[in-house]
Amino acid sequence: MSHLPTRADIDDQHKWDLSAIFESVEEWESEWTAVHSRLEDLREYEGHITRDDETLLCALQLFEELLRRTQRLRLYAELKRNEDTENSAHQERLHKSNRLDQEVTKATDMVRREIQAAGRETILQTVETAEELELYEQFLNDVLRMGEHARSPEVEDLLAEFADIIESPTRTYVSVTNNDIEPQPVETPEGEQIEVTRVNLGKQLRNRNRAFRRRAYQSVYEEHAAVKHTIATAYADKVKAQVALANARNYDSVREMAFNKPSYPETGLHIHLPVEVHDIATATIRDSLDPLHQYDERRTDILGLDELNAWDLTVPLADAPEPTVTYEDARDHILAAVEPLGESYRDRLEAFFTSERIDVYETQHKQNILAYGPWAYDTGGYILLNYQNDVRSMSILAHELGHAMHAEYVRAAQSPVYATVARPIEEVPSYVHELLLARHLLDVGDHALRQYARDRLLDVLQGIYGSTLRSLFTHETYRIVEDGEELTLDRIEERYTDLLSEFRGPMEIDAWAKRGWLVGSHARLPYHFYQYALGTAGALCTVERLLDGTLTPTDYHDFLRAGGTVRSVEAFETLGVDIRSREPFERVCSAVEEHVEKLGTAE
Question: What distance in Å separates the CA atoms of residue 410 and residue 348, rounded to the nearest whole number?
């Protein structure tokens, strides 16, 4: 049987080196103690933060320092935990980091309350009289804007105390899906026994042998179905906790709270996205399902199937064997692909590849997600990858590198308080990378690579439908609880099945397909799927304008540098995208239709 390697089996060049964050656990502990002590310095400002401009400035500088230092502590703890999710010391360190975050939240909330209590007129007058406070003017406006969602000191302290408890359902889901679900052996067409996991399932579902695809799919979903009651309970508890939190924060809904939550990494700034953007995006895409249905019908024809099943949705339609793409080959292709973004951009990206910040391969007990790329102001980004030596993995690597490069530009251009990225725009750079990579691969001499690049390009574009389906699933399940009803397993499955039938009409919606909701991003914050729809729309427009010359590399770099100084809607506008209109979403759907029409045609 093929077993996952241990971390010790992986060459050092393919593992991240976290010593650039902290050289040792002891150094992390020392910094944790120092930050905890520094909290007392901030608490001493309580009651007189807005007394004069000098006091306000010192308090804001300390506020900024604490958030920057806790970013670094959290990043290290999170990455170590994700190296080995069964390591109890790593888990405890992350819990300790979370507890410190709660204490920091209490102290920084105190700063916000005093600014809000002083009122807009007083604060802005103070800023006008002190030149050094001008840096914080936009931050102060954001604090004042969020005043209507602030509570009394007693309630704020209580909410901070409950922050860890609110996240308990998420920890339950992560624990169950990472530690209680054992990979099942599945026989390949060649007779080899392999373990199929949630991470490598995508690779197995690209196998040409349909019987094997079915075995692989069912092995994963059968194991998840065995714990579906636990997953449903954890999901329902998470929804109830978020609804209670939204009520406590004076929001009309969890969606409104999600569109005003802190940006990432947390610096004290908040997202400011109108909820109607979500309605426009989902309604437009829902009204434009024909290209997706045409794609499914074309897939059924090309594969010669009597019916389309869930395990048939990602098998390549290319007429060539799937090429092997080593990690080193992927690096070279990605560096070549980003040339339209300018030489300086390419050089920065090449430097990132050599900075030992990418953890490449899947190992035992490593976090079982395809990839993600967290970052902190002092360190930049790190990428957890589970690379599978294929075109899809190369594209996912390009995606995460888009996030990492965004972080590099923001850090270089902004002070810590503005070195943050609003969720609505954060997927634009990642999809820009994926679309540029597909464009590059379509021009290479390797026939197989060109074929699989076409498949991947269509996968990326039609992904806007999947993210919209998931976004609507989130919205409808949260609305059930917000309407005072109980979110049961039956209701969860009913909502998912209805949406799946609407979006994937040509597919057989059998018992296996209906289990699709079990394997999702339930550990993420609510309403995160919308950002992928916005990101795809923004990226397609950006790439098309870069290639026709109406957007320059410098324009794009400026977009990356803006960070928290520009609100989401305005940030999209700098790229020539109006996300308050239907046009950018209709453009993606029409692009899907264009590429579906090319399926099966000669090169």
Answer: 13
- Give me 490's structure tokens: 């039956």
Query: Backbone phi, then psi, for 266, in 5-degree steps?
Result: -70, 125
Q: Where are the domains of the chain?
A: 7-153, 327-461+528-598
Sign of CA dihedral 3, 6, 10, 14: positive
| Total count of residues recorded for the chain | 603
Q: What DSSP string describes 282-342? A: HHHHHTT-HHHHHHHHHHHHHHT-SSB-GGGSSS---SSPPPP--HHHHHHHHHHHTGGG-
- Residue for token digits 């920890």? 171
- Eight-state DSSP code of residue 264: B
pTM: 0.93
Whether 222 and 317 have beta carbons less than 8 Å apart is answered as no
Burial class of residue 145 (count of CB atoms within 10 Å of its CB; 0-12, 13-18, 19+) = middle
**Amino acid at site 32:** W
Chain-centroid distance of CA 183 in Å reads 25
The predicted-structure confidence for 306-339, as pLDDT tens digits, reads as follows 999 999 999 999 888 989 999 999 999 999 999 9
Distance CA 249, CA 270 (A): 14
Asked if 501 and 277 touch (Cβ cutoff 8 Å), the reply is no
Q: Does position 424 have pLDDT exceeding 80, yes or no?
A: yes
Q: State the Rg of the chain over Cα.
A: 24
Residue type, 118: A
| β-strand pairing of 184-187 with 371-372 | unpaired
Query: Percentage of residues in the chain with pLDDT exceeding 90?
Result: 88
Tens digit of each residue's pLDDT (9 = 90 or more) over 103-141: 999 899 999 999 999 999 999 999 999 999 999 999 999
Cα 100 to Cα 438: distance, rounded to the nearest angstrom: 43
7-153 and 327-461+528-598 agree in CATH topology: no
Q: Taking all residues of the chain, what is their mean pLDDT, rounded to a whole number? A: 95
- Check if the beta carbon of residue 488 is closer than 8 Å to that of residue 232: yes
Question: For helices 53-83 and 88-118, what crossing angle results, to 10°?
Answer: 160
CB 193 within 8 A of CB 187: yes
| DSSP state string for 332-392 | HHHHHHTGGG-HHHHHHHHHHHTSS-EE-S--TTS--SSEE--EETTTEE-EEE---SSHH
SS3 271: coil
The SS3 call for residue 446 is coil
Taking the C-alpha atoms of residue 109 and residue 115, their distance in angstroms, rounded to an integer, is 10
Superfamily of the domain at 7-153? Oligopeptidase f, N-terminal domain (1.20.140.70)
Sign of the alpha-carbon dihedral angle for 92, 98, 99, 100: positive
Q: How would you write 150-207 as a 3-class SS string?
A: CCCHHHHHHHHHCHHHHCHHHHHHHHHHHHHCCCEEEECCCCCEEEECCCCHHHHCCC
Closest C-alpha among 395, 516, 374, 551 to residue 461: 395
CATH assignment, 327-461+528-598: 1.10.1370.40
| Contact assessment for residue 71 and residue 376, using Cβ atoms and an 8 Å cutoff | yes
How far apart, in Å, are the Cα atoms of 413 and each of 142, 458, 476, 561? 20, 34, 40, 6
**Residue 133: what are its φ and ψ, rounded to 5°?**
-80, -10
